[in-house]
TrEMBL record:
<dbReference type="GO" id="GO:0009244">
    <property type="term" value="P:lipopolysaccharide core region biosynthetic process"/>
</dbReference>
<dbReference type="Pfam" id="PF01075">
    <property type="entry name" value="Glyco_transf_9"/>
</dbReference>
<protein>
    <submittedName>
        <fullName>ADP-heptose:LPS heptosyltransferase</fullName>
    </submittedName>
</protein>
<keyword id="KW-0808">Transferase</keyword>
<dbReference type="GO" id="GO:0008713">
    <property type="term" value="F:ADP-heptose-lipopolysaccharide heptosyltransferase activity"/>
</dbReference>
<dbReference type="InterPro" id="IPR051199">
    <property type="entry name" value="LPS_LOS_Heptosyltrfase"/>
</dbReference>
<dbReference type="GO" id="GO:0005829">
    <property type="term" value="C:cytosol"/>
</dbReference>
<dbReference type="InterPro" id="IPR002201">
    <property type="entry name" value="Glyco_trans_9"/>
</dbReference>
<keyword id="KW-0328">Glycosyltransferase</keyword>
Length: 366
């Protein structure tokens, strides 16, 4: 049953979107946020996110307001405070992209009239609109599942569903990439005319990843293939999240022992500053973790390494950049789901080098 779209104080519906888990999950919500914001009614879009992804949310052009979810650890006092904030906001609709009983209960208690979420376990009891998706089958990319939920919400509100947005889902102001490259050039002395290949060897504990030894082997293989094609050697930049600096430095030393110079990206002033730095790369190599999905949202070329676990397939957690900008690798059929050593690094290096050779010049030189 379709619900007539209510009007806020400014005539626009007030929507609250919840994606309060990890960085990569949140970045894969940006296509859905872009879809909602493109509706003809120009809805006011608020998001509920944890404090650590809030800096990214404040950079998102499709978000009007950022609310902080204090999480389960805040106890009853934090829950009461958040509930009061939701009541005061008088939201017309709640879209929960990843449903949990706590958030469902809060939306219900806040009196939000339209509450839509995936039909997931018993948390769905708090929602009056439920969409069956069966995400555990991993039949579609996560960002497509999110888009489908956003489109279903617009239908429930009686709003026309706009054409699906296209990459980049994080469009930067003109000149931002050039500014970031100039900044890194000043910091590290990199040659701006060379390809800059960023490699993020950490996983933040959220995904199975290649070992440092395997990443070093991958770099050697890529370097050899580019040299064999008479291409200029790329500049290698290693990135790290909090607590991952020692691993990145260890990889730098391993590469130096093989005659390859790699540099560490200097510390940044917060997650948003780090994310903007990724716009400077010509390609980012990483496991299925936050930086990979930030780069994808920026439509930078990516090469991702995934386990073969059904819930973590390259299809399910595909980056949301353009098809021509993404590569994905995982263990072959029959290998253990966590056996990242079974990935053919020579074949991966060949495909990465081929992608780099075929990128238009404007992709590699700012």
């Amino acid at each position: 049953m379709m619900t007539q779209c209510p009007e806020g104080d400014g005539g626009e519906p007030r929507l609250l979107v919840v994606r309060n888990d990890k960085i990569g999950d949140f970045m894969l919500a940006w296509p859905a946020l872009a879809c909602l914001k493109a509706a003809a009614s120009a809805p006011r879009v608020s998001v509920l996110v944890p404090a650590y992804t809030a800096p990214l949310a404040r950079q998102c052009p499709w978000i009007d307001e950022v609310l902080i979810d204090p999480g389960n650890a805040s106890g009853r006092a934090g829950c009461r405070t958040l509930l009061q904030r939701l009541r005061e906001a008088r939201f017309d609709a709640l879209l929960t992209l990843f449903s949990t009983p706590r958030i469902g209960w809060l939306g219900w208690r806040a009196g939000i009239p339209l509450r839509l979420a995936p039909a997931t376990q018993w948390a769905q009891l708090f929602y009056n609109r439920r969409i069956v998706q069966r995400r555990s089958r991993s039949e579609k990319p996560e960002y497509v599942y999110n888009l489908e939920l956003a489109e279903a919400l617009l239908v429930e509100l009686g709003l026309a569903v706009p054409p699906r947005p296209e990459p980049p889902y994080w469009p930067l102001p003109e000149g931002t990439r050039a500014v970031q490259r100039e900044r890194i050039t000043d910091e590290l002395g990199l040659d701006g005319s060379r390809r800059w290949l960023f490699l993020h060897p950490g996983s933040g504990g959220s995904a199975v990843n290649l070992s440092l030894e395997r990443y070093a082997s991958l770099v050697l293989n890529i370097q050899a293939r580019l040299a064999g094609a008479s291409a200029r050697a790329p500049a290698w930049v290693l990135t790290a999240g909090p607590g991952e600096e020692a691993a990145a430095d260890s990889l730098r030393e391993r590469l130096a022992g093989e005659g390859i110079t790699a540099v560490l990206l200097p510390p940044r002033h917060g997650l948003d500053d780090f994310a903007l730095s990724l716009s400077a790369c010509d390609l980012l190599i990483a496991g299925s973790t936050g930086p990979l999905h930030i780069a994808g949202c920026l439509d930078r070329p990516t090469a991702g390494f995934y386990p073969s676990r059904r819930s973590a397939t390259p299809l399910r957690w595909r980056t949301c950049n353009a098809e021509a900008h993404r590569l994905a690798f995982c263990p072959p059929p029959g290998a253990g789901e966590h056996n990242m050593d079974s990935i053919d690094l020579e074949a991966a290096a060949s495909r990465i080098a081929d992608l780099l050779r075929h990128l238009p010049s404007h992709e590699t030189i700012s």
